[in-house]
Design goal:
With about 350 residues, the protein is mostly beta strands. It has 2 domains: about 30-135, no CATH class; about 185-325, Single-stranded right-handed beta-helix, Pectin lyase-like (Pectate Lyase C-like), CATH 2.160.20.10. It has 3 helices and 26 strands. The protein has helices at about 5-25, 45-50, 315-320, and strands spanning about 25-35, 60-65, 70-75, 75-80, 85-90, 95-100, 110-115, 120, 125, 145-150, 155, 160, 170, 175-180, 180-185, 185-190, 195-200, 200-205, 215-220, 230-235, 240, 245-250, 260, 265, 275, 290. The strands form 3 sheets. The chain has a 10-stranded parallel sheet. Strands 3-6-9-12-15-18-21-24 form an 8-stranded parallel sheet, with no helix packed on it. An 8-stranded parallel sheet has the order 4-7-10-13-16-19-22-25. The chain is globular and about 60 Å long. Belongs to the pectinesterase family. It is an enzyme of class 3 (hydrolase). Pfam families: Pectinesterase. One of its GO terms (molecular function) is pectinesterase activity.
Amino acid sequence: MNLSGIFSFVFTLLILHFEAGKALTCRGPLRTITVSQSGNAQFKTIQRAIDSVSNQTQNIRWVRIKISPGVYRQQIIISRLQSCIYLEGAGSKSTFVQWNGHDTPFTTPTFISKADNIVAKGITFMNTFNRPVNGDEEVRLVPAEAARIEGDKCAFFECAFLGVQDTLNDHYGRHYFHKCFIQGAIDFIYGGGQSLYEECTLFFSVGRDLPEGRGGVFIAQKRESREDRSAFVFTKCNITGNGKGKAYLGRGYRPYSRVIIADSYIGDVVSSAGWDPWRGSKRVQDLTFVEEGCWGPGSTKSKRVPWMKRLRGSALRRFVDKTFIDQRGWITRLPVNSSLPN
């Protein structure tokens, strides 16, 4: 097969996967699996519980994995066919998943979710490589992801994602984050997802000084073209930090990067310019970086970059409303929100 034929074949597979993800509707009744490190449950590790869900055929029934409090030092991987899994922790301050993988985003994140229709609630996902714990020695600063989300129609409620560089890889698909806490220092929310972050906290912190010449960045969105529907939208969020250094709200990770921040608090950790074109875009007019209805000491626009966009009225509502990611009600049908259809 020649190069153009291979490209066409791969592109077709990607389209078929995305369309299949949109068509898949998980159903009830809800089956529950329990996890506890004490042994007083069906499984001692989260991965063993996930592995009990078939990955030979597409799962279409909701499976709740109820996780007891504890620190689970393990990597978690949900494969492409293991859809319709609901990870229910005991709260982000009592259920922790920790791993120290780094450098390779495809294989090393603490949590890798490849399937569509994945939900998590009340769990902290932490990559410890750039943020040593328990007295470990300080290490070099490299990409070390706490989570990589690849599937469509995935949602996270009251979860925390902790890291330093590339904490949350919001890679691809429609995603919803509600009341989540996301911490890092460099591009700590990045990727090409079509995602809505509602009532979340974005916390700029490294736990140590950044290397000389490296500034902080909250968001790096990778929209590739005008036709690309992806964007990161933040509404009713709290954008703050620990007061050590300054950070850009976002930078042009790809030529058409798109980030909308609305009705949110912006703290004084944000640099006065606000946004950085970076090397991902040669034409700043193609970038869509928006702040509307924000307040706080870092929200002053007098020194913002002149190419920042404005969105008002229906143009803004198009993004901040849940219909931006959910026109058919998949969020309201999640097991955290409602009873499930049989």
